[in-house]
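In the current project phase, we have settled on a layout for protein records. One protein thus recorded is set out beneath this paragraph:
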Amino acid sequence: MTRSLKILIVDDEPKACKNLQGFLEKKGCQVQTASDGNEAMEKARKFHPQVILLDILMPGPQSLDVLRWVKQWKPEVEVIMTTAVISHETQEKFSRAGAYACLQKPLYFELVWETVQQALKHQKSFLSR
């Protein structure tokens, strides 16, 4: 399953992207990165990821707009939000817009991987409806 798993990481911190990309590639995933909302939407259209890790604070279109675009474009794509500061209100807002989960930075890679696996199970049940 993970050999063909495509993940798009959207974060304006190049080092964070590179480190997470390396970890996920070692797990057998195909990974691409984007540094802003416009690049994220462009790469999503071309790459067709199953999971997107989307930073809440980034340049370009706001992450909430990108999330809404993804859910209109391909509702089955699971989006996991990442942020340094997380509040209950933020989690609620992104959850209502279709985010699978919100993870707080610094990201613990094993927790990211576990969340991706759970998101894929959720996606599978969504697709089987």
